[in-house]
């Protein structure tokens, strides 16, 4: 409720205002007439500026207040006025129909909603401690094999090779399939740059193709057109939890005898025709970075059902050193290993992956329920034929051209969002590899990822939806 020290009579001077501000501790005073009708506002910063500009503390408030203040009406709720808070405006008076100050809204700084957050409430700490106490903290230990078995099994593949992160998983897959100099690899334009960087790191030439505007994933028709004599592999990226059209992509790959490496970093557990992503290609690559569906802090995995590819990946992961003959190196390898500590966290995470996908789905449903009526919002497609997407980061498109304004407004009220990835072909670094990019540019400019964390409340979702709604009222 509003206290008397928020007010200062219009008959007073700057000194009176300073006293009120000092007493209420809010950095602002409402300057009112005898009927408590708001004449204007004055902040501590205003007083400081006035003094620096030669005014004195005895100068009348009448001539020195801000009369073009932002106010709210009695029927406005906190979320109605959220939009008006910014770097300067932190307090908004509420006026009745007579302009009498009846209350005020204060920006709540303590609200901070991150875009993503690891959820570590199962056996993570138990297993981590167990691995620690066992002293197997390096890259040998039971959690590594457990994690590899559990995760590959979950995805419907025979083998898993745990690695240090999702990017080297892609590199390991490419090297294992002997893709390098002179080979072309088809990648989608809309993805995280790790996809194309991995191709460049093995010395191959990426060919960037456009996305399909419904799924936001690689468009198989564009893949067809981009195939050349040099094409050795396709990397479909299951973007923002949405599976690619794996039927068409597999058909194309078989026809031309080229490999498929799936980038599943954003789609753990997603399905196409009731088969999990990662199990379609020669090798499926996953990331367990902190913001992914399940996490090991940093980490990744390659899964495959080919014993031959599995053996080769293990060899390459561990310096190319013979498993039978210590210090005898068969190929030029890497150290791409994951530690037993990370794998311990991974094992706990996989125990609750179904639960995790469920709360994500429910959260996405709640967002979509609040947003689906807005004519400036397009929701990510949830029911494309044969596909069962998962909710990684809740993703929407804003069609009124004001995407960046909304991001800024949400940031001002402590809500973290992300714009979609910048299409690879838009960056100088990768432009030369562009084959087609019409839809990806259009979609990318409209896209926002919304906070997707376990503890997000219904009222938070409402607040976020309100930012998009308020535009409609204008
Ligand atoms: C996160 C991500 C990666 C890379 O994973 P890291 O573990 O961070 O190296 C690769 N591809 C896509 C699409 C990603 O989102």
Strand content: 15-25%
Uncertain regions spanning at least 5 consecutive residues: none
Bound molecules: pyridoxal-5'-phosphate
Q: Tell me roughly what share of residues is in helical segments.
A: 25-40%
Main-sheet strand order equals: 7-15-14-11-10-8-9
Distance between the termini: 30 Å
Walk me through what this model shows:
The chain is of the alpha/beta class. The protein has 16 helices and 20 strands. β8, α7 and β9 form a beta-alpha-beta unit. The longest helix is centred in the C-terminal third of the chain and has 19 residues. It is elongated, with a radius of gyration of 28 Å. Bound molecules: pyridoxal-5'-phosphate. The site of pyridoxal-5'-phosphate (PLP) has 14 residues, from α6 and α7.
Please give a handful of descriptors for the protein shown.
four-stranded antiparallel beta sheet; single chain; seven-stranded mixed beta sheet; 35% helix; alpha/beta; binds pyridoxal-5'-phosphate; 474 residues
In short:
The protein has 474 residues and is of the alpha/beta class. 35% of the residues lie in helices and 17% in strands. The strands form five sheets. It has a seven-stranded mixed β-sheet with strand order 7-15-14-11-10-8-9, sandwiched between helices. A four-stranded antiparallel β-sheet has the order 16-18-20-19. Strands 1-2-3 form a three-stranded mixed β-sheet.
């Amino acid at each position: 409720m509003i206290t008397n020290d928020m007010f200062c009579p219009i008959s007073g001077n700057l000194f009176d205002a300073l006293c009120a501000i000092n007493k209420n501790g809010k950095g602002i005073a409402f300057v009112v007439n005898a009927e408590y009708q708001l004449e204007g506002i004055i902040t501590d910063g205003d007083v400081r500026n006035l003094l620096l500009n030669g005014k004195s503390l005895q100068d009348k408030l009448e001539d020195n207040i801000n009369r073009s203040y932002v106010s709210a009406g009695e029927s406005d709720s906190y979320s109605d006025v959220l939009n008006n808070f910014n770097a300067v405006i932190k307090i908004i008076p509420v006026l009745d129909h007579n302009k009498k100050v009846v209350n005020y809204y204060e920006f709540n700084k303590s609200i901070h909603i991150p875009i993503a957050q690891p959820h570590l409430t199962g056996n993570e700490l138990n297993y981590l401690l167990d691995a620690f106490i066992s002293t197997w903290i390096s890259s040998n230990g039971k959690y590594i094999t457990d994690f590899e078995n559990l995760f590959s099994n979950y995805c419907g593949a025979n083998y898993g090779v745990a690695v240090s992160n999702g990017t080297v998983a892609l590199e390991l897959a490419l090297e294992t399939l002997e893709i390098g100099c002179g080979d072309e690899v088809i990648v989608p334009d809309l993805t995280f740059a790790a996809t194309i960087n991995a191709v460049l790191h093995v010395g191959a030439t990426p060919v960037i193709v456009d996305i399909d505007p419904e799924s936001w994933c690689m468009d198989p028709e564009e893949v067809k057109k981009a195939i050349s004599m040099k094409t050795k592999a396709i990397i479909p990226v299951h973007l923002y939890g949405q599976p690619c059209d794996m039927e068409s992509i597999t058909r194309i790959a078989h026809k031309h005898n080229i490999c498929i490496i799936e980038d599943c970093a954003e789609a753990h557990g997603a399905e196409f025709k009731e088969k999990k992503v990662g199990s379609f290609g020669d090798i499926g690559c996953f990331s367990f970075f902190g913001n992914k569906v399940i996490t090991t802090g940093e980490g990744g995995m390659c899964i495959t059902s080919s014993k031959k590819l599995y053996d080769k990946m293990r060899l390459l992961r561990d310096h190319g050193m013979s498993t039978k003959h210590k210090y005898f190196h068969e190929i030029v390898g890497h150290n791409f290993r994951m530690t037993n500590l990370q794998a311990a966290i991974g094992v706990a995470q996989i125990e609750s992956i179904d639960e995790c996908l469920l709360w994500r789905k429910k959260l996405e449903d709640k967002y979509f329920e609040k947003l689906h009526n807005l004519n400036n919002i397009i929701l990510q497609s949830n029911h494309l034929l044969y596909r069962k997407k998962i909710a990684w980061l809740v993703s929407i498109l804003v069609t009124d051209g004001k995407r960046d304004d909304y991001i800024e407004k949400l940031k001002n009220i402590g809500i973290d969002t992300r714009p979609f990835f910048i299409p690879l072909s838009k960056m100088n670094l990768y432009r030369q590899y562009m084959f087609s990019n019409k839809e990806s540019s259009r979609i990318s400019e409209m896209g926002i990822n919304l906070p997707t964390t376990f503890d997000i409340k219904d009222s938070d979702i409402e607040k976020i939806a309100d930012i998009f709604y308020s535009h409609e009222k204008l």
